[in-house]
Amino acid sequence: MKINEFFKRIGRKIKEFFLDESGGNLIEYALLVAFAIFIFFILVAEVTGLLDYTFGKTTEFTED
Q1: In 9, 19, 39, 61, which residue has its Cα 20 to 30 A from 46's Cα atom?
Q2: What is the mean pLDDT of residues 7-14?
């Protein structure tokens, strides 16, 4: 009986999470995480581009 009560409690908590209107909206959290990952990849791309550019300029300078 303990296992059934445990699963019922978990089911109730999950149902409350999905039906909560005051901030437990799963779609809002998913959009926030996706936006954060998008911004992170943009920043990483910019930094790696800058590093690649400076590395290329350094090798051009030392070739002469």
Answers
A1: 61
A2: 88
Domain count, the chain: 1
pTM: 0.53
3-state SS record for the chain: CHHHHHHHHHHHHHHHHHHCCCCCCHHHHHHHHHHHHHHHHHHHHHHHHHHHHHHHHHHHHHHC
Cβ neighbors of 18 (< 8 A, separation 6 or more) are 24, 26
52 domain residue, yes or no: yes
- Where b means 16+ CB within 10 Å and e means fewer, 7-27 reads eeeeeeeeeeeeeeeeeeeee
